[in-house]
Records
---
Amino acid sequence: MDLRRFPKLLAQKLSTIGSRKKILYTYIYIKLRTTFMKLRISFKKKVVLVIITVMFFFGTLATIAVYGMMQRTISVLAIEYFESIVIQQEETLTNVFNNSKSFVQHLAAHDEVIKYLQQEDPQPQDAFLLAHFTRFDIDHSYQAIYLMDMTGRTVVSTDPTFVGQNYGFRPYFKKAIEGELVIDSAIGVTSKKFGYYFSHPVKTPDGVIIGVLVAKLKDTLIGDALRPKILSPEGGAMLIDEYGVVIQTDRQELLYKSFRPLSPALQKILADTHKFGNITIMPLQYEAEGVILTEIKRSTAFETYDAQHQRNEIIGIARVNNAPFFILLEEPTQGFVAVAKKIARIVSIFIALASAGVAILLFLLVAKLLKPLTKLKAVASQIGKGNLKQVVTIDTGDEFEELGMAFNNMTAKLNDTYTNLEGKVWERTADFEKFRLAIEAVSDPVIITDVDGRILYANKAMETLTGYTQLELIGVKPSLWGRQMPIEFYGKLWETIKIKKEEFHGEITNKRKGGERYLSELHISPLLMNKGKLYGFVSIQRDITARREADKTKNEFISIASHQLRTPLTVINWYTQMLSKGEVGQLNNEQQEYLGRIQSASKRMVDLINSLLSVSRVDLGALNVKPEQIQLTEIADSILVEMGNPIEKKQLHIVREYDPQASSINADPALVRIIFQNLILNAIQYTPEKGIITIGIARKGIAEILITVADNGYGIPVGQQARIFEKFFRADNAQKEQPEGNGLGLYIVKSILELIGGTIWFESEENKGSTFYAVLPNKKD
């Protein structure tokens, strides 16, 4: 019997035997289900509750959706509306500024003003001109109206404190003297009051500029036009100059603050022009608006978060037409959110009322439709009491009638099954007894456990193997004779059979009742029900202690024999070298040919002996790992030099792909050399003439080095790739193309890598080549 297949066959058999209980389970299920249904609410109530729950669920989703949609819609509408308000306020301010521009432009063109400045020595505070200025300011909208000569000195002013003062440093004078109509804002140097300056050059009829007329508008007029009435008390309005500084606002904590830090150049301009007196301009936390101010062309509105007040706000910004100012309005969004909540509340009330009405209608409708279930319930109750001859009669012409017919068929079949159940139980019992006797006759130890590993059954062979009787084994766990392996081994075992529900194959060391340790080949198969439910395990063991001892003896014999053969082979090689060099006389061509064959055969014998010795040391665990700092590139290149003859003979092209950062490694040089020798030798042997062999050394992660040896040779057939690392195995195409070889090289490489904590794998396609990957750990000590 195949030991690997036996656990699976046993599991299938036990699963079949377990199915004999299904008929009884069906009967018990119907009875328990009938009783259970009595303790629960009726089906019609369930239907109504489910529908109400679904309506409530989707109603809640609808309410949330409506709330979100309304909030977004109202937000969009609010932004659009707010933008229109900003535009209205901008137009209002534009009208105020245009009126002041017209005022100063008109006044500067009066003959009285021109004639006054044309005098050779005009008298300051000319009474006629002063009265003229006062008469023009009918609404008293201006803090001061004053006239400056070409030097910037004030000669006439409605505010007498201005007379004699030189304001030539002010931008509104410098630009106006060049012919521009200027609008500016600043804190007065003399009055210490903030205002808006409108300046216009005074020109003679022939266009010569002879002075500048300035009207300083009161800031209260701008304040009245700045804030719209629709703003809530929490909202705010502000006017910002071309430098991003708030020059007027109803929120005093923002006054004379900039929307972004001012550059040193701007700070110097403000200081030189005394625009804000001695006030230090500090930046605000309005980075987003600060960016928009430099880019805005007309007007815009958007929603943003005010970190200072920790709330969402709608911000509206507009550039005042033909003026170096921006108007900014802000309004909290709480009012708009409240509207969305109110609409969502109305929707939720409507859904609740609709759900209540639908629930009442559904209850009445479902009660009528589900009357046939009462009949089914009564018949099921009788069946639960053991009366399997009951018949249900339903004449509805729908699925309930079909259900009644199916129910009657099931009852009839259940009655027949129950009648024959006793005979089937005896038949299954006999089958199980036969199966138990078959297991007892198996020479290999067999145990059956539950899902927790407690032994339910153990055959006689298990007694012989462990020394424990069947009575001692039943009810205990295999740890009674186990616990000889690392804890990681048992963790992997349980993960395989219990979590993954897969078969486990491996070798395990256990201890007999007398304390003697033994090595077993272990196979465990999960016992699964039809739907994959786990209900136990079956385990087969085979004592391989004697076989392992035999293998050890064999390896020791091979090691001794190989050592004994090396001495005569060394002598043979020594004498053949003497003969080939002509040290004992010249040889003719025929003798040279025979001598070459002797040398070739001797070399193959030496290679075979070296491989056998390596295998012997691997199997006996006699390889000593002595890591030291080495250079992988030097080892690889030295092996290529050693194998120069076959490389040149086959005209192979060698490609080196060395990573300089990956060359140095802490490893055993002798073992690394064996790895390189076997991988490179295989590539040379199984690559045709003029082929390409690529040797790569690269870093893999932090503490590993990846070695790759690739060729475009014969490749490995797909059907034989699984055996490529087996001892003495050679693929069919390899034997055909290269008869010489012993099939030990890859086995040795894999064994060495496993010993030092490395790994190896390959990719291959027949007639296209192979690539072998070997990962070396970079040992720190």
---
Amino acid sequence: MGKLDFSTEHVSMGGLPNLSARNAIEINLYTINPKGIKLLCKPGADGTNGTNEFGNFRLQNDDGNLEVDNYSETLVDPTHIRIRANLRDDSEGQKITLSGCLWPENRAEFAEADLKAQSPELFYSQTFIQNTPPDNVKNMYVSDGLFSSSVEKCYLSFEVPNQSLKRNLDSKYEIGYYLRESDGKLYFKGSETLTLDQRRNPSGGNVFQYYFDGQDDDLTSYEYTVQVLGPHGRNSEKLSTDPALGVCVLVEPTVTIEQTPNGLFDESYECYEVESASDSITFTATPGQEGDTLTVKDNGAVLTATGGHYSVSGSGRHTIEVVSKKVGARAVTVTKKIRIEKTPDAAEIEFGKAFNGCGTDASGFEYIEVASLAGTVSYTATAPEEGTTVSVTDNGTAVLASGSLSVASHTLVATVHKDFCNDVAVTKKVKVVRELQKPTYSFNPGLTGTKTGDFEWIEVADGSSFVTYTITAESGCTMTVHNSYGNKTTNTSGNTNTDTLVSLSTSSSRDYTLTITVKKPCYTDKSFTKKIKLIKALQEPTIRVYKNDGNDLISPSTSAPEESGYSAYTCYDMPLTTSGTGHANFEVTAAADGGSVSVKVDGANASTYSSGKRKLELGGHTITFTVTKTGYKTQEYNKKVYVQGTLSEPTIESVNGIGSATGSGNSNTDPLVWKFSYINYDSLKCKITAGNTGNTVKASTTVTGSSVSLSKPTEGFGVGYDTVAPIIIVQTKAKCKTKTTTKYVKGVIKPIKLTFNNHSGTGRLDVYMSGFKKNKFDMKGKICVNGNIAFSYIESNCDGVNQNQWQNLNDSDERSFTITCSSPSDDITVSVSSLRRNVGNKTDDPDDSGIGGTKVKTLADLKGEKSSDTRWVFLSDAISQKDRSVIPKITFTVSD
């Protein structure tokens, strides 16, 4: 079990909850049931049939004879059980106990005693007292007369609650009385707690009348309170005869005005505005209680209802009194104060200049146009009725009722004021604007400032040039533009119009008249005219450029100068002399339209030779032509030219080549080929001579696919043999075009002769042997070079051979041969066959089978192992078998 909660109204008294049984009681049990097991499963008891039959729980008094109505048990959810019942008045004041078991479904078959012994936590008991507060008194009022002729006091009268009910029987009545003084406030005078027997009318049945001895005779301005004190310590609600004292039982009459107050309050008067002075305000009035008589007055005059409605009219204050009177009771009066006023008429606003009649804009402004930004428009605001005043604001700022409006947007609010009435405001939204102005014009090319009549001149470069113009009106405008030439009309969607004037073609001049109609919403349209004369401008002279001081014409290059910053210059390529010098000359020819021409080069007057030509050094120049002619705009033309030197071809020479080169060197299939002595050089040496004096030369070649720079190309560089080397030569010089030349060069060696003769000394054979059984021994076998025998001992006629040291082998027979090589990569082959130890006279050692094998090296390997410039050595790698090995070394005499 978790907790128990009484939803029924209750208090704690004497340590126990005291429940009111005026309505059905409700008790909520909250359990701890995380598994959601179904509860209230006692066999044969559901407690849900709405009868007096108890189920899993029961209500009992001490005597065990408690009877209830509409008992029910409800499982709201697995953790919430709700128990409801109606207790009877017979058990009022008794102690009642709620007891029972949760009876989960998994214990439904248990006997109650067994279940209590096993799971006492499933059982629950709670005791409370049935204690219902007494009922309130009824029909409570203050008398309209005195108690009797002998007791001249006003008194309180009410009906006591039903005395047959235990909750009311033997109740007491606490009565208080208050006196309303002249300040309108109530002051407490005293109270008494009385039994029914202490009333002033002992035989009054259920009516209780009472006055206090302390009351003044003939004084009726008393108010009373009554509270019933129940027999079991609980009390009723305190009632009173005046709202200031608590819950008031005297019901006032109601007054309902059918209109809503819409004027300003006049002290305690609600103000109602009406459209006409004859309009009335209507209302309904109802008595406080049924059976009361009702009297309605307006400013003391009794009103009669028409169709259940009363009406009052007339400007000024009205006091409406509604009196509700019950026989024998003091009258209850309600007063309603109202004021009726006619709503004032709106002000009138007049302006000193009429609106333009072009409608209103999106913000509701009407427009008045003035000639300039300094223009103003007068206004006057007047109130049309007597007894009213008028005030005016312009854009929220107070202004005089008469004044002037500047060029701007004005929201004029004229407000009529009248006492007790809401202000009546009239708003006039006026925009004072300057009338549409002449648009601005922009021409490209621009106006020259020369005019023929009304036509303004524009000079164009040639007959194919167009004049672009832009006409700009005020912001927010649109335009219709008509061009007289071609009768073309354009309507714009914005305030600009950009277009072109048709080119002159073959004409020397032409007239155009542009008519522009400017439009803007809420403005009056305006039309303007612009007249233009198109004239072909003085044309640019031409130049001819020549080589040096001669008459050889130079045409402009198709590419820009190489020097940075001159990409916009016209380039003229000028070949330099071998000595590296050169310049150009130019002559000027005026255009066909005539005019005199003055010439400057780089800002200085250019001197003219007798030939009429002017000199241009290498580099960039600005040639300025000033062309003048009477009546025309002086034209100045700048021509940017660059005289760029062109460099001559370089030459490649051999430093160590033998004789002249063959081939052109222009491709890898026709290279420059030089022979060189491989005995003295490892590669062909070349050098580069610049095409012109003063050139800077850089060169590179390609080695295994990568570019390699040559450090000193003009002093000498090596070219590998047997391959074609591309030599990329780059020549540069200030103010000259870079010249890149590719030449292909190949170096080939002059054929090499390797001579071997074991008897003449031009050749020698040495061996290094190891691993044989006996150190010094005779040997047999053969050693050949490129198939030529260098050693061959068949018999045992070789003197003893030492191991583990170099040993010269010199055949008794003369061994002589020559090997010719054309490339350092040519192969030299040494072969050894049947080389073995000889034992005794012509007897081979049976344990030493012959050693054999071949080793190959290139001519370059021999040169790398040479003992002198003319003695080149073939040092073979070891030729081995088992533990035995031999290293032949052949020395040749080398020559071209």
